[in-house]
């Protein structure tokens, strides 16, 4: 780590030396008076010369301090000693200088100048220690005046426990103007009190850092502010990630119950900013990263040679991450970090699907900066919003696409909709409509078979161009709201599904394609109803390419999520009742049905003309 050099300013005042001289004179006089007289002679006291008022900027000696953030840090007479991190191929300087633009929200004389050269890490920054743990019980907002070279840059403020960096919290703000002072606010919570005694700052966090930059900042102060909602558990997967189907001979696995894993040094380096738990979901081992900012995984002792692989794979599940990043780092032929031949590249996934397992199959060719792949030693996962998301990770491996299975090794997910809510066309779970022809002669090139996949009867369309399904009698599905289909494909790039009524009248639904796993698709029947007569559905049709496996084709109504009939009218005589809420009685006044400390949304609705909160 590099440390800045403090610039010292020395006052011109000589008052301390004059005061010492006068004090010695007075002391000598007092001693002489004890011997000769109680009254000093008139010449014994010499009045000090009047001192001129200090010039601006010369009223103190600038010094290095250990600040107390509750008192505010104005950098006029003192500043903390900082340590930098994330140098890589660049460097930093930090100086206390005159305000380059004493206007707007900041007219103070002295500010801090922070310079970064190009080549520093995207997460580069600096930190300094505080005199004591920060108390957020009264004031939860930290304000910092910032002068940035561009708008839309992330400024990240992080607090840590200096003795344990895993105890931390960070909040981001974004600059809105360029070359102008503005005050950015970072809101914390009362529950963050007495945890942190180190302040960390990142300017242009995760920016490109491909050119030198200068930022100024000043006046770090606390103020009262609203408590933010605490990051918390927003759910976790109830089922395991999809089981991989790739030939083990074509896989280098770091973490998966399906394969033999290579040795990994650590799944959370000491420079990571996240909490790691090893948990089990549905009998499957899973890595859980909570309060995720970034986490490093290292295989330095057993570096991975992925030159024979074509893809990197992992499965993730999150309920709250809005962005997920994966960085691969190769240490080069010298096998050492920062040895001059390192290569790396980061892939960004914006808005990953939430509350379901997402399989990421990334061609290694997409990691364009990873120009060498024989000594892969680091994997870095990054989540956003920083420190306010949880990501579950499973099945981390490299593979060669030559080993990708051409058929599923497990059956489609078992449906859970009650049979009373279902009209089933093809499923082992339900009673299917009778007499359906799954391979009518329509001149298609598709080869149709029914395969046993892990005990599940499954439709297979090979060499698909189009394929029909003919019902023995028209289906009235107007009482249903959804069509469900499970599909699996090793190679298809296009798949469309159609409902057809007499006419014929038909309209398609285009499927989003994911290969190598079962995908469950639920299609609102409103996608078809403007064209197709839902009381007279005579056929289904699929068209596309490649090979498609299909299962669990059924129409259904989702289970009710709110009542459709009113609650039973109470029969207790009103004379025996004190009612708070009921259409059957006279209610006593209630202050509120949702206090301001509640964590819920309230709506006053009517069910069968009956008021319901």
Automatic annotation (TrEMBL):
InterPro entries: Galactose-bd-like_sf. Gene3D superfamilies: Galactose-binding lectin. SUPFAM superfamilies: Galactose-binding domain-like. This is CBM11 domain-containing protein. It comes from Flagellimonas iocasae.
